Amino acid sequence: MFSDRLIAITSIGLDGEKIDQITFMPKPRITLQKGMLVATAMECLSAWEAQATIIVHTGIASALGEIVILEVTKAGNGLVAGPSTVKEMEELIQMFSNLGVSKIFIDGAFSRLASSRLGDALILVIGASYSHEMIKVVDHGETIVQKFRLPAVEPKYRFLEDCRKITGIDAQGLRHQLDIDDQNKQNLFQQSFDEIRQLFVPGAIGPMFAESLIRNRNQIHFDLIIRDPAHLVVSGLLLKQLLSIKMGIMVLRPMNLVAICYNPYSPTGYAFDENQFRSLLMKKMHAPLFNVGAESENENE
How many angstroms separate the CA atoms of 19 and 256, rounded? Predict the structure, then answer.
């Protein structure tokens, strides 16, 4: 029925509003084109400037009402609020697929990276709003890109997908479930595991465990394996320090970072020199770059 529809849009938060609900600053709008499919909450429709027809009632509830799928019949701005859980987003993606959609764009939020594993590709946006110091924004972006580009494990370690406990693998390839609870993994170095060459941690790597790894870095003779980059729940200087120690970090499910967008303008009123900002990013990122405010970019520049 909708096999000619190529693009669908949804969000894991609330996007497209005129004023940010946290900073109270102006935000870029979401412009919807005729023929697109959009999943959003019912209460968002009163703020739509685009015109659309509801084609699916998903039955997925949200704080802003039921999530519905609409077909845009007249272009204009729209307010988009999709499912809040990974499971519900998976259900919605399947509904889009059943409608013949080939490309689904999920507007993300950096604080909710768990949903990133649902996508086939990831686009990162780096903006001046992070700091008024350009070099600080670039350095932060470089660290985040390192996190998103954590390499995949070798196929022989795929069995770890089914492991639910912290597991060590020795030089002979034998696995050892360590006698430590995932919630107390910062106490890992209280026991000896000199023979371990790979250490799989099924849960999140938070600040306390990251600090323990950094503090005990001279005792580390293993590579760390985690499920995906979203399970590395540390940021800022701590993330930079963790990525710099002599310990390989690999993932069972790598992310496909296909492009980086940059915004030289901050909603608080200051702006970077666009050429200088782009030049610094190009030296650090090694990925196609797109200015979010430009009509197009030459990604080969």
Answer: 31
> Are the beta carbons of 82 and 58 closer than 8 angstroms?
no
DSSP string, 21-89: TTT--B---EEEPTT-EEEEEGGGGGG--SEEEEEEEEEE--TTS-EEEEEEEE-EEE-EE--SSHHHH
Instruction: Indicate the residue type of 78.
Output: G
State residue 67 phi and psi, 5-degree precision: -80, 125
CB 10 within 8 A of CB 93: no
- Cβ atoms within 10 Å of 36's Cβ, excluding its own: 21
What share of the chain in percent tops pLDDT 70? 85
Say how far apart CA 284 and CA 124 lie, in whole Å: 14
- Structure confidence by residue, pLDDT tens digits, 166-183: 899 998 888 888 777 666
What pTM did the predictor assign?
0.79
Angle at 230 between CA 299 and CA 190, to 5 degrees: 135
Angle at 79 between CA 75 and CA 81, to 5 degrees: 130
Distance from C-alpha of 296 to C-alpha of 163, rounded to nearest angstrom: 45
* Dihedral sign computed on CA atoms, order 103, 40, 92, 250: positive
- Asked whether the beta carbons of 68 and 56 are under 8 A apart, the reply is yes
Q: Where are the alpha helices (DSSP H) in the chain?
A: 86-98, 134-148, 207-215, 236-244, 274-285
User: 194-217 burial, b if ≥16 CB within 10 A, otherwise e?
Assistant: eebebbbbbbbbeeebbebbeeee
Local structure of residue 265 (DSSP, 8 states): B
End-to-end CA distance of the chain: 41
